[in-house]
Amino acid sequence: MKICILTSGHDVFDNRIYFKEILSLKKIYSEIYMVAPGEKDFITEQGIIVKCFKKRKAWYDRFRPMKEMFDLAFNINADVYHAHEPDSFQVALKLKKRLNSKAIFDSHEYHPEAFAEHFPVGKTFVTKTIYLYEKIMCKKADYIISVNDILVDKFKRYNKNVALIPNYPNMESVSKEYSEKPTFIYVGGIREDRGILKILEAIELVDKDYKFVFVGAFETEEVKVKIESYLKKNLNDKDIVFTGKVPHLKVFSYLKKSDVGFVILQPNNWRYINSEPIKLFEYMISTTAIIASDFPMMRKIVEDAQCGVLVNPIDEKSIADAIISLGEKREKTKEMAFKGNEVVVKKYSWSIVEKTLLDAYSELEKNI
């Protein structure tokens, strides 16, 4: 069976798409292609054939990339097209009609809400319109994959073939090499709605010699300027490092030296309140304790594992108190980290949900 992965906005080596789903499928299926944004075609070390089209210039640049994606995917003539966004799924459905192939929609975001955020006026109307369009498309899917119960329950109203495949981490072996002083880390895109400024405001309140490492790219130049200005004005005396974007596997070289990881998502984004961030699990798998926003889904994980501290994400003092407490009681913090690691291995690792993905493909293969 020939498989083609479609993505309009993700990187070729996206953690979920490539290192989890594609490499799991590669264990069974030898012929796997990927159509994704990029500069030139290439073949990965694992033998995945990647066909590239030019990245879109802005969020509204949709039609040109979709046309280029369709042309590349059509020439591949795959048995299954596995799409990761609504627009790439439109392409998958068009290919299904032309080639009599199978179409999978892999929805790991709250897409209607996310798209509507681009419209300051008429957001509710846009959201409802996208929901309706999504419903029409999903009825035509041969299979739908999603990451949490909220999304799975939604899609089950439209389609009987829905699989829950959470974004659990791969089992990365991390041998801790703690720094001399307590080290706190943030991993991910550097943007305000993920609590970057709140973390910096909290650090300003911490009168301790701790180290703070931020691993990830600035979302925009505006955010970069704002943060650099804040650092220069308020945090000159603090041990703070911004690494910029680093390859996924290199992230663990920073995690192994860290005591605590931040997941301070902000409540002004509904999607964040109702999410299980992959960073939460990556901290746990790397034996790193957690300071997390006190949101229902994250609360359930953190409290169940006893692997960190929950805070009010808009209250810098709440975050500062957690930093000081975990830094002062370092041995107890390490105990939290080890508990998190034990729980993630038993309940939240990719190896647990990999079979669900392979079973879905096995069902499709029977009808090809």
Work out the count of structural domains. 2
Described by strand count, sense and barrel closure, the largest sheet is:
8 strands, mixed
Oligomer: single chain
Return the string of H and E elements: EHEEEHEHEHHEHEEHEHEHEHHEHEHHH
Q: How many β-strand runs?
A: 14
Radius of gyration: 21 Å
CA-based shape: globular
Q: By helix and strand content, what is the structural category?
A: alpha/beta
Name the helicity range: 40-55%
Q: Any idea what the CATH architecture of the largest domain is?
A: 3-Layer(aba) Sandwich
The CATH superfamily name of the largest domain is Glycogen Phosphorylase B
Which blocks of ≥5 consecutive residues have pLDDT under 50?
Answer: none
Q: Could you report the average pLDDT, rounded to the nearest whole number?
A: 92
GO molecular function: glycosyltransferase activity
Keywords: Transferase
InterPro entries: Glyco_trans_1, Glyco_trans_4-like_N
GO biological process, one term: lipopolysaccharide biosynthetic process
Quick gist of this model?
With 368 residues, the protein is α/β, with parallel strands linked by helices. The protein has helices at 15-26, 63-76, 86-99, 111-116, 123-138, 149-156, 196-205, 221-234, 248-255, 270-273, 278-285, 296-305, 316-328, 330-347, 350-365; strands at residues 3-6, 32-37, 42-43, 49-53, 80-83, 102-107, 143-146, 162-164, 183-187, 211-215, 239-244, 260-263, 289-293, 308-311. It is globular.
What does this structure look like?
The chain is α/β, with parallel strands linked by helices and 368 residues long. It folds into 2 domains: 3-168 and 351-365, Glycogen Phosphorylase B (Rossmann fold); 183-347, 3-Layer(aba) Sandwich (Rossmann fold), CATH 3.40.50. It has 15 helices and 14 strands. The protein has an 8-stranded mixed β-sheet with strand order 3-4-2-1-5-6-7-8, sandwiched between helices. A hairpin with a 5-residue loop joins strand 3 (42-43) and strand 4. Helix 2 packs across helix 3. The protein starts with a strand and ends with a helix. The mean pLDDT is 92.
